Predict the structure.
Amino acid sequence: QVQLVESGGGLVQPGGSLRLSCAASGFTFSTYAMSWYRQAPGKERRLVANISSTGGLTNYVDSVKGRFTISRDNAKNTVYLQMNSLKPDDTAMYYCKAHGTAYWGQGTQVTVSS
């Protein structure tokens, strides 16, 4: 059974940092590219960043380039999203996803507010 469990969200002031984690199980994690998505209230879910199966290739949406870093540890079946210089516009529920699958975790809430 595929499981994706996101954690690490919270309330942070503008300019602050958070590190999100997504623990995966039920599939061969090391063979899948992984992605982080986010969904703000009243808006559609959108891709934030993705990483190849080996971690050698990464891509980011323009709005987070230079601030967010996606990484993975295949030994721990975990993908991370380091978020720095956070802005109120980054407030959203954040989800991870294995490329080409239909499975979503429960998400982790990130709120950026003073």
User: Anything to note?
Assistant: The chain is about 0% helix and 50% strand. The two ends are 40 Å apart (CA to CA). The mean pLDDT is 97. Residues 95 and 107 are 5 Å apart (CA to CA).
